[in-house]
Amino acid sequence: MVKRYVVVGGEPELALLLHIFPEGVEELDGAYAVYADEPPLGFDVVATDQVDEDWPDRWRDFHHGVRVGRLWVGPPWEEPPADAIAIVIDPGRAFGTGAHATTRLCLELLQDVEVASLLDVGCGSGVLSVAAAKLGFAPIRAVDVDDVALETTRANAAANGVEVGVGTDFEPAQLAVMNIALDVVERVLPELPVERAITSGYLDRDEPDVEGWHRLERRVRDGWAADLLEFGP
């Protein structure tokens, strides 16, 4: 049975919660709440609440659309601005809509780099793949180890009328985007058949340290960071 677990902590705990619960974390005053069948291991759970049967609908209360440059990313129950490129993502119970700072930073960088072939590693809801497709990137390959993520990305690409290849294997591309935890970025980046990468999912005090890769640009927002990296001397 799904319950609402309230945990205490700061930015490091929030970063880990978002990695474990990519559907989103409800931010409270000095604490965070997640909805799950079991309590999150390794966290200081200060309250456990029963949730009503309509909790998936009330989950919508903290999923709202955001404007990021030319793009608007939001759920289907909100109306996008008329002058924006709309990326409509239904989070359901599985994934967030793109309001988190790390997603916004990735979207900013995608709008400022040259369009190219793209590999989306850890695609989640597919928000970055869909946005990239609407910006003109092609071909796009979305990769994840989670079958639900692949199904969700496939559905969101279809709902937005864009073409995104989905699978579990890396394919050569000019650019990768990785909005995942720092340790995963550092472990996976050397395996990617790409020349450049947009990486995020970590705090602004952290920085990927991978041999052969150097930073071209960094952006920060709300204590989080995203980097544009390039392989070479």
What does this protein structure show overall?
This protein is of the alpha/beta class. It folds into 2 domains: 3-60; 101-231, 3-Layer(aba) Sandwich (Rossmann fold), CATH 3.40.50. Helices cover 24% and strands 31% of the residues. It is built from 6 helices and 14 strands. It has helices at residues 11-20, 55-58, 101-112, 127-135, 147-159, 182-188; strands at residues 3-8, 26-27, 31-36, 44-50, 66-68, 71-74, 85-88, 118-121, 140-143, 165-167, 175-179, 196-203, 213-221, 224-231. The chain has a 7-stranded mixed beta sheet. Strands 2-3-1-4 form a 4-stranded antiparallel beta sheet, with helices on one face. A 3-stranded mixed beta sheet has the order 5-6-7, covered by helices on one side. Helix 3 runs parallel beside helix 4. The longest helix has 13 residues, at 147-159. It is globular, with a radius of gyration of 17 Å. It starts with a strand and ends with a strand.
